[in-house]
Amino acid sequence: MDSSRVMSAALRSKIMSADDAAALLPHGANVGMSGFTGSGYPKAVPQALARRIEEAHARGEPFRIGVWTGASTAPELDGALAKVDGIELRLPYQSDPVTRERINAGTMEYIDIHLSHVAQFVWFGFLGHLDVALVEVAAILPDGSLVPSTSIGNNKTWLDQADRIILEVNSWMNPALQGMHDIYYGTRLPPHRTPIPILAPGDRIGEATFRCDPSKVIAVVETNAPDRNTAFAPPDQTSRAIAGHIIEFLGHEVRRGRLPPELLPIQSGVGNVANAVMAGLEDCSFTGLTAYTEVLQDGMLNLIRSGRMVLASATALSLSSDAAMLFNRELDTLKDRIVLRPQEISNHPEVIRRLGVIAMNGMVEADIYGNVNSTHIRGTSIMNGIGGSGDFARNAYLSIFMTPSTAKHGSISSIVPMVTHVDHTEHDVQIVVTEHGLADLRGLSPKQRAGLIINNTAHPSFRPALRDYFDRACKFSPGKHTPHLLDEAFRLIQSS
Asked: H or E element: which one contains 421?
């Protein structure tokens, strides 16, 4: 490991092992940990803490903590702590299967929050007291400032608000990361807020490093380990069809004069379908693209490398192993075209609306009126969380939701009479897309929406049942504005 990454003499004296650092975390503490979509999370201390918790439980002693992050992390953090029943409360987003199992079993509490709200909720005191910040960085500079790693997330807030700080200094991280980040320290609490001065996706309004009060640092742990790199499946026929419908629609909007030739800044959610849309943009005629988004995935990195995308603003990377190697190899040239910001800025509604972002996000299901469920299965079991999709959907110039038309090998329709859980109401959903087509819902009444969604996006094997439901609802529903038959609306439509 490269000790030269700890360049502050005062903080070098606090270097210790992960086990010794974990011993400083008490039962019942709220711990703000770095990490966003599997990048920039602490690699060593959470695993050491999990061992300590397991030993305490073996002795019959209680030991659980609150875990606050930017978004999802990795098995070394969420998985390790969930496996030993070490998490009392988790927020704001997770994707670990063990964590999900415990949440849905009722043995772990979970708060699902819009990602733009987390930092301000902590500053407001809405979530309780933050005891410890556990943050990975790429280096500690001589003046004690911190070079961020591959994600920023809520780290600025954790470092500012926590009583004590534990730093993991990861020498695996490319030192060329320094200068890519833009940490804005201009946010204020009401009634003293001022506009965030971002007028274009590439505007830099902050500092390249985190400020850190050295008196709060209780441990520095040196690590050398890569992020959990997400492997993306190659675009299949379904995801390519979804991407094709979206790209055709964007071209139509340009021809109508509703979008400029270079489009507007793009936001793309995480996942294989979203990555396929980025791959589709690489093969089309759009140039001069920009992004104002949460995560930079393989497809967006390829757009930057090809020159089709001139700049991307995000809060984290979410790359496959191959893309991460390319990123590190070409970072000296890429860093001028990529900006990483705190998620309270990357997801800020004011900025999203000002820039006119084109938001593209996945979903679990949509109903015939355009309400979208992004988070739950059968209304009660959480999948991952709302993430930043709500931040973008409500404030975007175009709000697009996409999904394959069926789930469970074609046995369940993703287009249903009424969603079992609502994350995005019909008021925030403009476009619904599946492999079968695109429904442009702008300017349509609920009944007009229903016809378009059924005819354009539902799988053909489910359209007759959906049409039958809608026709009968129009006849027998007490109210005819948004007709429903509530006694049968939640019956899952399954293919015959």
From this structure: none
